[in-house]
Amino acid sequence: MDELSPEALPDGTLWGSWRVKRRAGYGTYGAVYQAHRRGRFHWKHRRSVNTHYQATPADDVYALGVTAYRLCTGIYPPPATDPSIVGDDGRDTQEVLVPPSQLKPLAPALERLILRMLSDRPQDRGSAVELASAMEAAADAAGAEADVPLNPSSRTSGVTSPPAPAPRQAGNWSGVLLPLIAGVLILVVESLRWEGFLAPPSGMTDGGTGGVADAAVEELPVSR
């Protein structure tokens, strides 16, 4: 099992089933990929191996989008395979990003937010503040489509009576959306730090970059 940063992989490198291990201070493109060398698919990173890349808050937004895609569909977006299936090197992967609604029922508003966070262009992903506002607005305006289970149970045979009317439950879509809002709020703190409003403690830096986990444990300065 090897650990390496995706920036270090040249185009065309063969890798098998892999998983992303969260690592504070590196953002999405600095996530650590653990892979078996006997893989069957070609992974081509968009960035040149010789180009130095400085992680930004936009990378953490992308990481949040990857997490949301995984929560809603059960798989990671390309080039990943399902990390829960260890040793399955023959598992198929997505060649291109498939909208999550093609894999599982999903509210259109949530899908748009996920695809926005997964945009190839960092400037198109939006800031943490914009995403937090958009997510809250989407949750408030969610209709009946938000009640569709992400993992519907198999149908049972036999005749059943119609269910009794019940108030709309928000446990399906909101169960995914609310953790995302919490994550974006953490990104707000991170964005403020990158914009210079908060000074990172000297002991909290990691190779000159900062991540979501760093921001979550930092203490805001107290005025006296």
UniProtKB/TrEMBL annotation:
| Gene Ontology molecular-function annotations | kinase activity
Chain ranges passing through the membrane: none
| UniProt xrefs under SUPFAM superfamilies | Protein kinase-like (PK-like)
- Chain coiled-coil ranges: none
Q: Which key words tag this protein in UniProt? A: Kinase, Transferase
Which intervals carry biased composition (Polar residues)?
151-160
InterPro entries recorded? Kinase-like_dom_sf
Annotated segments matching region Disordered: 143-168
- Gene3D superfamilies this protein is in? Transferase(Phosphotransferase) domain 1
**Stated name of the protein:** Protein kinase
The record lists the organism as Stigmatella aurantiaca (strain DW4/3-1)
